[in-house]
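Quick entry between incubations.
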Amino acid sequence: MSNDLDLSASATPAPRRGSGDLDLSAPAAPAAPAPSSGLDLSAPAPSADLDLSTSTPAQPAPSAGAGFLDLFPDPPAAAPPTPAPGAATPAAARRPGRSTREKPTSWRPVPRVAARGRVILTPRDPTVTLNRLQSGIGALTVEAICSPAVGDVSLGALFELADGSSSVVERQRGLVTGPPGSVSPVLTADREEFEQLIVDLRQTQRLRRLLVYAVSESGRELNWGGTLLTRTFGGARVELPLDLGVHRGPVALLSLYAVDGEFVLRAETERITGAVRDVARAYGYDRITWADDRTPVV
Amino acid sequence: MSRGANVPLTREIPGLRQIVVGVSWNGNAEPVLQDNLVMAAVLCDQTNKALSAEHFVFFNQLTSPDLSVSRLEKALADEQEQVEIDLPDVPPEVNRVAFVLFVNEGTAARRTLGQLRQLTVGVRDGSDNRELVRSENLAPALSTETALVLGEVYRHRSDWKFKVVGEGYASGITGVASDYGLPL
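Done. Structure below.
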């Protein structure tokens, strides 16, 4: 196995143009500042060149530098030649023996969503970063806008808190608050017109990461369609089209990582074989224990 | 100090460099309300707009980019929240710093600032924590508001002054963000 931890898992060892060694578009990467987060990169190389613990600015206070963390380098074809100063250097400096490979040559600023703005997550642009106000004021709402034609959609989330504890919210399983039984929950599973999850942003600093999933309540096949809509308190919208085809079993939809006070949202849209427990395994939520493959012990 | 009143700070106390602006409310208010009260400082330009989203200092953004304005981790002296300003370090483009108290309406729906009985804002000398000025009780004039501009520290010629504002927002922090041009 290659030691440079290429998370995009390209099989060819040949140099790849443009995209560089550091491909943070893999699911777990934004969890980097949380070393105990059950980060499962499936890479048995702790001494790998990619030092995840320093891939974001370390200071807890606000910093302009965070704006240059490129979570998804351009695909090889499009490679504008201007690296952002300070962004390429630290990663490159940690790879002294990599001169045969091209250094990352394309960096673009982290996508943001404006006040009352709208962002659509796509395979090419799968992430958006909310600023510290959007991540710390009011509530964040995640809603599965699906017609009855999709089937009996049950929306849930795996989450990990800053104290290391993990659990699940899923309204249709009776798991409505996270942590379970909390009177002032960080996460609430609810339903209005559609299934929704609510993050209380007064408690934003208690949340380390979460993964939004959906599954058929009765275990049937779902014929996916609709949109996962994430709304900030000010009304900015992040939309994720749910064109996942027909699938039996859960689908991982959206991950959220708290990075230095900011929420990084990332489209996952991955079909998982099995049940919710298999979603937890796939995304490294290994601090949850299970009564059966879809019922956590709370 | 009553609403609308202002007081010179650096002209009266020439050596004043660091001030602490703090808010105090009655400690026996409903816990859900108290847990969701948030104080913020907004660094504004000449037109009274925030310079950027990073110029909003609160528990999730502890300092301004220039480090001149910081939220204190632990408020002292019977105040629930405090923000410290190093006056000489405030960048010239910052014309005023407004102090806001709001109810975070994530899970605290239907709570309002009108449920407080006591609410004051004060300014201390950061070097010795001595209280310089304190507002009148701002609570009696509040009813359905969920956000309030408590006061502001602002430039006046080459000096800094403090003014009690006490202006409420029924539209809450959303209204405040809109007025100050903050992306929310």
